Amino acid sequence: MINPIHSMKKLPLFIALILAFCSIFFQVSVYSETPLVPLSELTPAKKHTNATEIITYLINSHHYHKKPLDDALSSSIFDSYLKSLDPNRSFFLDEDIKKFSRYRYKLDDALLKSELKPAFDIFKIYRNRVKERINYAVLELENEFDFEIDEEYLFDRRELPWATNVNELNEMWRKRVKNDMLNLLLTGKEETEIKETLRKRYQRIYTSTYQLNSNDIFQTFVNAYTTSIEPHTSYFSPRTSENFDISMRLSLEGVGAVLRNENDYTLIQKIIPGGPADLSKKLHSKDKIIGVGQGEDGEIIDVIGWRLDDVVELIRGPKGTVLRLEIIPGKTGSEDLNQVVTLTRNKIKLEESASKSKLIELPGLDRKIGVIDIPTFYVDFAAQAKGDSDYRSTSKDVRKLITDLKKEGVEGIIIDLRANGGGSLSESLALTGLFIKEGPVVQTKNSSGEIDINNDPDPTLFYAGPLAVLVDRNSASASEIFAGAIQDYQRGIIIGEPTFGKGTVQNIVDLNHFIKNPKEEHGKLKTTIAQFFRVSGGSNQNKGVIPDIIFPTAIDIEDYGERSLENALPWDQVKSAKYVKVSSPEYFYDKARASHEQRVSSDRSFILLLEQLQLVKLNSYKKTISLMESKRKAEREQLLDMKHELENELRIAQGLEPLPQRDDTVKIDEDEEEEEDDKEKPHDILLQETARILNDLILIVESGPSGLQALKIEQENATGNM
User: Annotated catalytic, 47?
Assistant: First the structure.
């Protein structure tokens, strides 16, 4: 998100567009050619000590959150560094951790002195432990496995104690290898092929670790420091920074997905609107990428255990080329239910990620309701800079869509911000301005405590009719600014789930600006320098925007968004800005809420939707898995049967034909995508209910003389502003 902070103008800054989900950009190496790094080269360089001095200065003097670099922070850095190296506690022994504990309360002093030896010492031992584990795993492949023994594999060890001895680690890895064997066996692969695949997989973990150089170690350690302060502050090494710059120029060609590592897997964190992944409708957030193939029939390379940058290198490629991804769907989470998705690489197209509108018509709906789907807050900066008056932007596109919807005779509009991760601050201000006449939209407080007020840039009212804003847990940043302002002005009703909760501002600082005549790149620091506050004074940070009507899908919301991140800044508030509320809708909202709750309590579609969410939740929360083949097959069949049954019940509840009897879930999913037109696919239950709520509100307002009169006055004031 672009936001100039006046108090930081004295610093030489590289200001970049920071999206709410803070995509992590990793150093990209050529995986097939990168040599192993000799132990002798794993020492901190002069540029690392220089960078450490600058980073500690910038954080201590300019970071929004003034967290002292003391023993308490040192302890957090220590834990964070170990977690970044061995998140699943699969390599280190308890004796290693006890040996490292001499650093627990000394890392603060080390950072202040730009002393990096502790980080490198810990990494060298980690490297040895990885070699030991991989050697064991490869040898274990030579054994025969009995898949009729009823035993469990605990695959999530993040919260468990460190292994106390080698025998304990061996047993853990024995079960890991056995589980990997069984996963591939259940996909129909032959044992010889399976063992070769796993041998390459384990060897890849070894080579990836031994390819890490001093820059990688430094970046990992410094990020253990920065994220111990707050999760959106991070250091980019020179090569990581270069990769970030490429992405900011939008010249990256690929599939349009934000990826991250999670326990040896490459996880899709977010689908970028307008990219090949989004347009295919075959990839989703929380899907795990386990294999990558080039072209229509190229070999699919197993990428479990790979470094994220190496996976990214495989996925990237020229526009127009074909890519095949083997995935574990997030909606099942079981590795033996993998699918292969074929995509064609392309650049993200602005027109595909642009806002779109449609009419929604439902049985019993008393009027036409328009829907405007806004996937991101965008603006064509290049065209704008050239002075092109017809440049594309969210607010300009929405203005046109509203005009078209009014010609269709709509009596209410829904702004759909689900999965909208943010974007341009200026566009969130301009969009808000379409629905209010004038006034402040958001307040920005910098690290010095100074507060700037960002106002509606256009003192006219473009649309004054009934308005609903639909949000979910992935609506973030600019989306939250817009939804928060609409709620504070009481201009429209907010419906859905509590939003992501990112209310902070980041800027990128080029460390080379602090070096006199630098001979090499020192990287960049993304640091949090400000926080957004609503006009009512409260922040969207951590809590997010709490809808006026919360959908029952908002289960386990604490496990999502900013509130789930370690060291996230807490909710805060400042003095309210001066603004005038449009109305006092509490009475209307209470009545609409009561109607909504009564409706969904007996709505079969809603009940089935919640059952689907519970099914995914139960599967995703599992930490153990059976290593008995017959039991695994039975569990898989039960999961698929439940999923298929729920999907059919949902279709029947919406008046659609059920899917054929399940023979192959993957084939069924593909048939749905290829053969069904939009009218035959299950309807958007949450959007339909939002339309019904808005319809209820219009009826409630119209039944009250004072409410109807106020609505007519607003509409008259907006006349002529089209």
Answer: no
Tell me the per-residue pLDDT of 626-681, one tens digit each, with 9 for 90 and over.
999 999 999 888 888 888 888 888 888 777 888 887 755 444 343 344 334 333 45
Instruction: Please confirm, yes or no, whether 488 is among the known catalytic residues.
Output: yes
**Which tens digits make up the pLDDT trace of 265-276?**
888 887 877 788
Catalytic residue (choose from 47, 437, 445, 502) = 502
Are the CB atoms for 468 and 492 separated by under 8 Å? yes
H helices present in 161-235, as ranges: 166-185, 191-210, 214-229
Indicate the SS3 state at residue 209. Answer: helix
Burial class (CB in 10 A: 0-12, 13-18, 19+), 273: buried
- Residue of 228, 234, 393, 477 with catalytic role: 477
What are phi and psi for residue 638, nearest 5 degrees? -65, -45
Taking each continuous run of H as one helix and of E as one strand, the counts in the chain are 21, 19
Q: Residue for token digits 């270069």?
A: 242
Quick one: which H or E segment has residue 300? strand 300-302
C-alpha 292/C-alpha 323 separation (Å) is: 7
**SS3 label, residue 523:** coil
Structure tokens at 450: 């100074």
- Does 287 qualify as catalytic in the annotation? no
Q: DSSP secondary structure string, 88-120?
A: TS-S-BHHHHHHHGGGTTTHHHHHHTT--HHHH
